[in-house]
Specification:
Largest sheet: 7 strands, mixed
Oligomer: single chain
Radius of gyration: 22 Å
CATH topology of the largest domain: Nucleotidyltransferase, domain 5
Strand content: 15-25%
Number of strands: 25
């Protein structure tokens, strides 16, 4: 039996999926909730505890050892929320900063502007690194740390991403960063896949010596540390480079060819898919990452995902079944009512302060409120992913809200393509396990994902033609409203 384990450290939980490669089945899955991140009063500073992540990983490794035969596990890899930075001393067990800014942090607008100015503007930064400077990206966060706490920055020997930090804890030595996760830092040349000297100089002094080495995503970076082998009676398992949650989710949903798209409806909503060449977003909203496949991936991220949906649902005391019923009770197009659901500072489009814009909803029923937010989220997903130049044949839907077929029906109608319900909420953890298998076996990707990431035919939702026509007109009005609000 050949088992492979994939971990995923998200904003809300640490999960694991263990697969049996020979039988092509999941033999164990588990999840451990994490404490909510710390949010400052101004709502723009958002940090979390790296020791919390490490403790959860230790607990979950013990659960895996207790529930499967460790002698059959051949390799481990992992996934982690992108952009978060962890500041360590000479050893990965020592921290020079107790908390980590995570992807929800939007406190570095000044640093983004400075980096873009130094590198010749937002477009130049995007051409170099795959994205313009974004407040949540690691480079601007490092610059803010250097400026605000120079002594602590000077004492920092290694700046990790969440992924490489947790991989380091498994091996007992500082781990490298894989190309895919490094893409979310504004520090790597997206074409050469090397740290950019110009980007580092624009970020902070002495940065090169603090950054980990860069490696392909399929690199075996070491073996499980001796203390974990002894504590959990595990063999010296191979540790494959950890990566970001979005690159791992792309693998976990079976997207291995350009033209395939997936939408993840989670804490943040994301739309992503493989790309052969690094096409850059002309409006600055999208990202090009190096892919765990060895090519590229396009992705657009929206902060106001599940938390925004909950902000509409919770005041009515509804369950998600009640929310679904509300969608079924209201017509497509919602009578022309529109909402810009910026309950939190938004990433795409960039909105620094929360601001919910409502048109035609002054006397709205609860059901109309529910439809307004779902239609808004689907229309913005569609509009702000057009830069990828991909005409999808179908969309795979994953994440917590993908369990709701009424939400997915709106997605199918807005995008005018079939939507396939992907029945795992652990696509990132599954993708990490599949990455561990591929790195250990050398098999091609279509072979690796076959059977694990094939959505069932029963989960398909087809677009309704009259609804498609409704949304074609409504989306034009929605984008005009967005442009007006941003202006």
């Amino acid at each position: 039996m050949s088992l492979y384990a994939g971990f995923d450290c998200s904003t809300q939980s640490l999960s694991v999926v263990v697969i049996d490669a020979g039988r092509r089945t999941v033999v164990y899955r588990d999840s451990l909730p994490l404490a909510e991140p710390f949010v400052a009063n101004d709502q723009v500073v958002v940090h979390a505890s790296p020791e919390m992540w490490a403790a959860a990983l230790e607990t979950m490794l013990g659960r895996v050892a207790a529930n499967v035969d460790g002698r059959d596990i051949r390799a481990i890899s992992g996934s982690a929320q992108q952009h978060g930075s962890v500041y360590c001393g000479p050893h990965p067990d020592t921290l020079t900063r107790e908390t980590s800014p995570i992807w929800m942090d939007s406190s570095t607008a000044r640093e983004c502007a400075e980096i873009e100015t130094a590198l010749g503007g937002a477009s130049a930064v995007a051409l170099l690194t795959g994205s313009r400077a974004f407040p949540r990206f690691t480079g601007p966060q490092i610059r803010k740390f250097w400026r605000d706490e120079p002594e602590m920055y000077a004492r920092t020997a290694r700046i990790h991403l969440v992924s490489s930090f947790l991989a380091s804890r498994l091996t007992g030595a500082h781990a490298p960063v894989d190309h895919a996760d490094a893409s979310g830092m504004n520090l790597m040349d997206i074409r050469t896949r090397e740290w950019s000297a110009a980007a580092m100089a624009a970020t902070a002094p002495g940065l090169r010596e603090k950054l980990p080495p860069l490696v392909p995503s399929s690199t075996v970076i070491g073996t499980l540390g001796a203390r974990w082998q002894e504590r959990f009676e595990l063999p010296p398992l191979r540790i494959v480079a950890w990566s970001g949650d979005n690159p791992c989710s792309m693998i976990g949903t079976g997207l291995v060819h350009e033209g395939q798209l997936a939408v993840s409806l989670g804490t943040s909503d994301t739309i992503f898919g493989p790309m052969r060449e690094p096409r850059v977003s002309s409006d600055g909203t999208g990202h090009v990452f190096a892919s765990a496949l060895g090519e590229y991936m396009g992705i657009t991220v929206f902060r106001n995902g599940s938390l925004a949906r909950e902000r509409v649902r919770d005041p009515f005391g509804w369950t998600w079944d009640d929310f679904s019923k509300a969608l079924r009770q209201t017509p497509a197009g919602n009578g022309g009512a529109l909402m810009l659901p910026w309950f939190e500072p938004e990433i795409t489009p960039p909105v620094r302060q929360p601001s919910v814009v409502r048109v035609g909803l002054d006397r709205a029923t609860p059901a109309q409120e529910a439809r307004a937010i779902i239609e808004a989220q689907m229309m913005t997903l569609s509009a702000h992913s057009a830069w990828m130049g991909v005409t999808p044949r179908a969309i795979l839907a994953t994440g917590g809200a993908a369990a709701n077929r009424d939400i997915l029906q709106v997605m199918a109608d807005v995008f005018a393509v079939d939507v396939h319900q992907f029945h795992t909420r652990e696509s990132a953890a599954l993708g990490a396990a599949l990455r561990a298998w591929q790195a250990d076996s050398g098999l091609d990707w279509p072979t690796v994902v076959r059977g694990f990431a094939t959505p069932p035919a029963s989960g398909r939702l087809r677009p309704i033609p009259e609804h498609v026509r409704t949304y074609q007109d409504l989306q034009r009005r929605y984008m005009a409203l967005e442009a007006s609000a941003l202006a």
